[in-house]
């Protein structure tokens, strides 16, 4: 089965539709105000209402207040949630939506044990750990730390680009890959050629 692709950090309709046209399976929207890729709930929901069928919008939060999460996911049943902070399994589960739990990986981590803490997750997104930066680091991590027999689908993220994604897919065999900075022309704006190249590389790998 070919690897799915999530394009993260979407801030405008043109980039969203271009990513769908290029074959993206999911689009990520960042609801973390300190991020240069932040998008407001109203703008994001307006974009989501115009997405073609079979594309999953993913709402990304970092230890957000319940009121913010509900204001984003309330208007559309289509939203999946990405918990990118230190949220507990009980909190993630409480929204009764499909969700990705992010684990930020560094040397010495017991990934299998961390994955086992989130039995209700639809998938686990593995991203690079960088002190003081919750995500969108543009950095890879040591993919050989990922065990091969994890009980959840894995979404591989962190520093992926059109140049390294095929190798990443070949080595890790993830369920999906996720990219933000590697397909941008500037922070928050996508480069459509890079998005197309990235998706082709992921499907090839
Ligand atoms: O993109 C951000 O600015 C961001 C801020 C806070 C938490 C997460 C954030 N982004 C997450 C992602 O875009 C991806 O899920 C992932 O981290 C890959 O990012 P990149 O290394 O830039 O491809």
From TrEMBL:
One example of a Gene Ontology biological process annotation: L-tryptophan biosynthetic process
Reaction catalysed by this enzyme: N-(5-phospho-beta-D-ribosyl)anthranilate = 1-(2-carboxyphenylamino)-1-deoxy-D-ribulose 5-phosphate
Pathway assigned in UniProt: Amino-acid biosynthesis; L-tryptophan biosynthesis; L-tryptophan from chorismate: step 3/5
First-tier enzyme category under EC: isomerase
Gene3D superfamilies found in the cross-reference section: Aldolase class I
Protein family according to the UniProt entry: Belongs to the TrpF family.
Name of the protein: N-(5'-phosphoribosyl)anthranilate isomerase
Species, as recorded: Marinomonas posidonica (strain CECT 7376 / NCIMB 14433 / IVIA-Po-181)
Phylogenetic placement of the source organism: Bacteria, Pseudomonadati, Pseudomonadota, Gammaproteobacteria, Oceanospirillales
């Amino acid at each position: 089965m070919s690897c799915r692709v999530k394009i993260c950090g979407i801030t405008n309709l043109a980039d969203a539709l271009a990513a769908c046209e290029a074959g993206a399976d999911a689009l990520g929207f960042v609801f973390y105000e300190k991020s240069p890729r932040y998008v407001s709930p109203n703008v994001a929901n307006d974009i989501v209402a115009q997405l073609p069928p079979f594309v999953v919008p993913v709402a990304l939060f970092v230890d957000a207040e319940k009121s913010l999460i509900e204001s984003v996911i309330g208007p559309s049943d289509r939203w999946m949630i990405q918990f990118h902070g230190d949220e507990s399994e009980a909190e993630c589960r409480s929204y009764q939506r499909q969700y990705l739990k992010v684990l930020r990986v560094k040397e010495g981590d017991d990934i299998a044990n961390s994955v086992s803490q989130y039995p209700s997750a639809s998938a686990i997104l593995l991203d690079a750990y960088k002190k003081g930066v919750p995500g969108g680091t543009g950095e890879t991590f040591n993919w050989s730390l990922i065990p091969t027999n994890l009980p959840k689908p894995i979404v591989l993220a962190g520093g992926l680009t059109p140049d390294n994604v095929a190798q990443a897919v070949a080595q890790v065999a993830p369920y999906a890959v996720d990219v933000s900075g590697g397909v941008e022309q500037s922070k928050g704006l996508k480069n459509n050629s890079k998005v197309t190249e990235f998706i082709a590389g992921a499907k090839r790998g």
